Amino acid sequence: MGSRFDEHERAQWSGRAIAYRDSLAALCAGPASALLDAAGLPPAVAGSGAAALSAGVAGSGSGAAGLSPGAAGVGSGAAVLDVGTGTGTVAELAVARGASVVAVDAEPSMVALARRRVPGLDARVAVLPDLPFADASFDAAVANFVLNHVGDPLAALREIRRVVRPGGRLAVTVWPHPPPVAQGLWHEIFAAAGAVRPPDLPRLEAADDFPRTVDGLCGLLRLSGLADVHGAEVAWTHDTDAEAWWNGPAAGIGATGAVLSAQDGPTRQRVRAHFDRLTAPFARGGRLALPTRAVLAHGRVTSPSPA
Hints:
Pfam families: Methyltransf_11. This protein is α/β, with parallel strands linked by helices. Helix content is 38%, strand content 21%. It has a single domain (4-179, 205-236, 294-300), classed as Rossmann fold. Strands 1, 2, 3, 4, 5, 6, 7 and 8 form an 8-stranded mixed beta sheet that branches.
């Protein structure tokens, strides 16, 4: 039985895979290549379509969290679990690097979309903190922004760690707090429009939360039982169409979408007016260039999970 936070997240994402793909999925793809580097996957073969795919993901800091591609000894054909696959961006890149990938997501519409995106992908519905795999089933696991969407991040990490073999690596990202420019713009927009956060919008229990910083995320990985933990911030500029940046929250996606959906008509109109005004300084050739960043951390499994 999930927490109220978990139940809200499931409802918030239900049936929204296409809306997410067409709006905010490109933002979440930003650190994907660095995430796979941190998990120890080798790079795609230079000059191949796979390498071009990997290079096309906008991120910075290959090996930024203290690990170069392949440094963990995860070779071609390694079994990799992509937790919270969403539209399958990370899974597709991992396949391009030669991995044998299993992908899971709590939202069935995301799983269906990932299967269509990556032919032959083993994609399944699974809800943390319960994964349908035996202990030590994978050589590595990645979770891109998954911990932002679970009610008990430590329990989620411990479950992911359970299914990674000793010697394997686990790499995760979260959005930082205070938020970067891209996400912080929405706080400014809502404040200028007089939009109010719904009082029933759930937050994590204080005992389950952690600082959304490099130190905070690394500390959580250590609490989960991982060793050789390293972390860093990955920064990039998110290039997007202005309507795509609006349409994600307008479709009710994420915490920003929950706030926007709760506003009455006049307030929503003010939000749109301030959105246009406050994003204008970031307009470049008809698109928006929004600075953003993520916190990336990874660690090594050194022993089987406790029974």
